[in-house]
Specification:
3-stranded antiparallel β-sheet
Protein backbone atom coordinates (compact mmCIF):
# COMPACT_ATOMS: atom_id res chain seq x y z
CA UNK A 1 0.00 0.00 0.00
CA UNK A 2 1.29 3.45 -0.92
CA UNK A 3 1.83 6.01 1.83
CA UNK A 4 1.65 9.80 1.82
CA UNK A 5 3.79 11.67 4.34
CA UNK A 6 2.63 15.23 5.01
CA UNK A 7 3.93 18.09 7.17
CA UNK A 8 2.04 20.97 8.76
CA UNK A 9 2.20 23.23 11.79
CA UNK A 10 -1.11 22.18 13.36
CA UNK A 11 -2.96 18.91 12.80
CA UNK A 12 -6.63 19.01 13.84
CA UNK A 13 -8.64 15.84 14.38
CA UNK A 14 -12.36 16.48 13.95
CA UNK A 15 -14.22 18.73 11.49
CA UNK A 16 -17.16 19.69 13.67
CA UNK A 17 -17.82 23.31 14.66
CA UNK A 18 -14.80 23.38 17.03
CA UNK A 19 -12.30 21.97 14.55
CA UNK A 20 -13.58 24.07 11.65
CA UNK A 21 -13.63 27.25 13.75
CA UNK A 22 -10.06 26.60 14.90
CA UNK A 23 -9.11 26.07 11.26
CA UNK A 24 -10.66 29.42 10.32
CA UNK A 25 -8.75 31.18 13.11
CA UNK A 26 -5.48 29.55 12.06
CA UNK A 27 -6.09 30.48 8.43
CA UNK A 28 -6.65 34.11 9.41
CA UNK A 29 -3.32 34.02 11.29
CA UNK A 30 -1.67 32.36 8.25
CA UNK A 31 -0.74 29.28 10.27
CA UNK A 32 -0.47 26.14 8.17
CA UNK A 33 -2.83 23.39 9.29
CA UNK A 34 -4.80 20.34 8.15
CA UNK A 35 -8.04 18.78 9.40
CA UNK A 36 -8.77 15.05 9.53
CA UNK A 37 -12.39 13.89 9.86
CA UNK A 38 -13.76 10.35 10.21
CA UNK A 39 -17.16 11.15 8.66
CA UNK A 40 -17.97 12.24 5.11
CA UNK A 41 -18.41 15.92 4.27
CA UNK A 42 -22.12 15.27 3.64
CA UNK A 43 -22.53 13.74 7.10
CA UNK A 44 -20.74 16.65 8.77
CA UNK A 45 -22.82 19.24 6.89
CA UNK A 46 -26.09 17.46 7.66
CA UNK A 47 -25.63 16.70 11.34
CA UNK A 48 -28.25 18.54 13.40
CA UNK A 49 -26.84 20.64 16.22
CA UNK A 50 -27.99 23.33 18.63
CA UNK A 51 -29.62 26.47 17.27
CA UNK A 52 -28.69 29.48 19.42
CA UNK A 53 -25.46 31.51 19.17
CA UNK A 54 -24.25 33.83 21.90
CA UNK A 55 -22.94 37.33 21.24
CA UNK A 56 -19.25 36.43 21.34
CA UNK A 57 -19.74 33.70 18.73
CA UNK A 58 -21.61 35.94 16.30
CA UNK A 59 -18.96 38.65 16.66
CA UNK A 60 -16.21 36.13 15.93
CA UNK A 61 -18.03 34.81 12.87
CA UNK A 62 -18.34 38.34 11.48
CA UNK A 63 -14.63 38.97 12.16
CA UNK A 64 -13.79 35.81 10.21
CA UNK A 65 -15.83 36.94 7.21
CA UNK A 66 -18.60 34.45 7.94
CA UNK A 67 -21.35 36.87 8.85
CA UNK A 68 -23.09 37.45 5.51
CA UNK A 69 -25.66 34.63 5.68
CA UNK A 70 -25.79 34.84 9.47
CA UNK A 71 -26.76 38.52 9.23
CA UNK A 72 -29.37 37.79 6.58
CA UNK A 73 -31.01 34.69 8.07
CA UNK A 74 -30.21 34.81 11.80
CA UNK A 75 -32.93 35.93 14.20
CA UNK A 76 -31.53 38.34 16.81
CA UNK A 77 -33.24 38.15 20.19
CA UNK A 78 -32.69 40.79 22.88
CA UNK A 79 -34.16 38.51 25.51
CA UNK A 80 -36.03 35.29 26.12
CA UNK A 81 -38.98 34.05 28.12
CA UNK A 82 -39.23 31.41 30.85
CA UNK A 83 -42.56 29.60 30.85
CA UNK A 84 -43.54 27.74 34.01
CA UNK A 85 -46.49 27.32 36.38
CA UNK A 86 -48.86 28.76 33.79
CA UNK A 87 -47.05 32.08 33.38
CA UNK A 88 -44.26 33.61 31.31
CA UNK A 89 -41.44 35.79 32.60
CA UNK A 90 -39.18 37.72 30.23
CA UNK A 91 -35.42 37.98 30.83
CA UNK A 92 -34.13 41.19 29.21
CA UNK A 93 -30.67 40.17 28.00
CA UNK A 94 -30.11 43.45 26.19
CA UNK A 95 -30.65 45.52 29.34
CA UNK A 96 -28.91 43.16 31.76
CA UNK A 97 -25.73 42.68 29.69
CA UNK A 98 -25.11 46.16 28.33
CA UNK A 99 -26.63 45.58 24.92
CA UNK A 100 -25.78 41.96 24.13
CA UNK A 101 -28.14 39.48 22.52
CA UNK A 102 -28.42 35.93 21.23
CA UNK A 103 -29.05 34.85 17.64
CA UNK A 104 -31.15 31.92 16.50
CA UNK A 105 -29.04 30.39 13.72
CA UNK A 106 -28.46 26.67 13.62
CA UNK A 107 -24.94 25.46 14.36
CA UNK A 108 -25.52 23.17 11.38
CA UNK A 109 -25.60 26.32 9.26
CA UNK A 110 -22.43 27.62 10.95
CA UNK A 111 -20.77 24.33 10.00
CA UNK A 112 -21.87 24.73 6.39
CA UNK A 113 -20.54 28.32 6.30
CA UNK A 114 -17.17 27.21 7.73
CA UNK A 115 -16.93 24.34 5.26
CA UNK A 116 -17.76 26.62 2.33
CA UNK A 117 -15.09 29.11 3.38
CA UNK A 118 -12.46 26.35 3.71
CA UNK A 119 -13.33 25.09 0.25
CA UNK A 120 -13.14 28.59 -1.25
CA UNK A 121 -9.72 29.16 0.35
CA UNK A 122 -8.42 25.77 -0.78
CA UNK A 123 -7.62 24.68 2.78
CA UNK A 124 -6.77 21.01 3.30
CA UNK A 125 -9.46 18.85 4.89
CA UNK A 126 -9.54 15.06 4.74
CA UNK A 127 -13.08 13.69 5.06
CA UNK A 128 -14.25 10.05 5.29
CA UNK A 129 -10.99 8.89 6.88
CA UNK A 130 -10.56 5.38 8.23
CA UNK A 131 -8.40 3.94 11.01
CA UNK A 132 -7.56 7.37 12.42
CA UNK A 133 -4.90 7.23 15.15
CA UNK A 134 -2.60 9.69 16.86
CA UNK A 135 1.00 9.16 17.90
CA UNK A 136 3.47 11.14 19.96
CA UNK A 137 0.78 13.53 21.16
CA UNK A 138 2.77 14.16 24.33
CA UNK A 139 6.01 14.75 22.45
CA UNK A 140 7.52 17.54 20.35
CA UNK A 141 6.61 15.74 17.11
CA UNK A 142 3.01 14.47 17.20
CA UNK A 143 1.40 12.87 14.18
CA UNK A 144 -1.94 11.68 12.83
CA UNK A 145 -2.25 8.49 10.81
CA UNK A 146 -5.24 7.43 8.72
CA UNK A 147 -6.45 5.84 5.51
CA UNK A 148 -7.98 8.14 2.90
CA UNK A 149 -9.26 6.82 -0.43
CA UNK A 150 -7.23 3.68 0.01
CA UNK A 151 -3.96 5.49 0.68
CA UNK A 152 -2.20 5.47 4.07
CA UNK A 153 -1.43 9.01 5.27
CA UNK A 154 0.69 10.37 8.07
CA UNK A 155 0.59 14.04 9.02
CA UNK A 156 3.56 15.19 11.09
CA UNK A 157 2.92 18.42 12.98
CA UNK A 158 4.24 20.77 15.63
CA UNK A 159 0.90 20.70 17.45
CA UNK A 160 -1.94 18.20 17.54
CA UNK A 161 -5.44 19.36 18.52
CA UNK A 162 -8.21 16.91 19.35
CA UNK A 163 -11.59 18.34 18.30
CA UNK A 164 -13.24 14.95 17.83
CA UNK A 165 -15.43 14.97 20.91
CA UNK A 166 -15.74 12.99 24.13
CA UNK A 167 -15.76 9.62 22.36
CA UNK A 168 -13.10 10.50 19.78
CA UNK A 169 -9.75 8.87 19.24
CA UNK A 170 -7.80 11.78 20.78
CA UNK A 171 -9.35 11.57 24.24
CA UNK A 172 -9.14 7.75 24.13
CA UNK A 173 -5.40 8.02 23.42
CA UNK A 174 -4.63 10.02 26.55
CA UNK A 175 -3.94 8.02 29.75
CA UNK A 176 -6.82 8.37 32.21
CA UNK A 177 -4.37 9.57 34.86
CA UNK A 178 -3.50 12.60 32.70
CA UNK A 179 -7.11 13.78 32.22
CA UNK A 180 -8.86 16.25 34.50
CA UNK A 181 -12.60 16.62 33.99
CA UNK A 182 -14.63 19.64 35.07
CA UNK A 183 -18.36 19.09 34.86
CA UNK A 184 -21.61 20.59 36.07
CA UNK A 185 -24.64 18.30 36.03
CA UNK A 186 -28.03 19.99 35.69
CA UNK A 187 -31.15 18.25 37.08
CA UNK A 188 -33.14 18.54 33.85
CA UNK A 189 -32.95 17.69 30.16
CA UNK A 190 -33.16 19.92 27.10
CA UNK A 191 -35.23 19.53 23.96
CA UNK A 192 -34.68 22.28 21.40
CA UNK A 193 -37.10 22.75 18.49
CA UNK A 194 -36.48 24.89 15.42
CA UNK A 195 -39.60 25.05 13.25
CA UNK A 196 -40.22 27.00 10.04
CA UNK A 197 -43.71 28.14 11.03
CA UNK A 198 -45.34 31.43 12.08
CA UNK A 199 -43.80 32.30 15.45
CA UNK A 200 -45.58 31.82 18.76
CA UNK A 201 -43.35 34.58 20.12
CA UNK A 202 -40.84 37.00 18.63
CA UNK A 203 -38.26 35.66 21.10
CA UNK A 204 -37.09 32.34 22.50
CA UNK A 205 -39.29 30.58 25.02
CA UNK A 206 -37.77 28.16 27.52
CA UNK A 207 -40.60 26.07 28.92
CA UNK A 208 -40.40 23.98 32.08
CA UNK A 209 -42.60 20.88 32.19
CA UNK A 210 -42.78 17.77 34.34
CA UNK A 211 -42.10 15.67 31.23
Amino acid sequence: MSKALLRTQVAIVGAGPAGLMLGALLARAKIDHMIVERQSAEHVAGRIRAGVLEQGTTQLLHELGLGERLGREGLVHGGFELAFDGRRERIDLHALTGGQSVTVYGQTEVTKDLMAQRSALGLQTFYACQDVSVAGFDSASPSVRFLHKGVAHEIQADFLVGCDGFHGVCRASVPASAIQSFERVYPFGWLGILADVPPVSHELIYANHSR
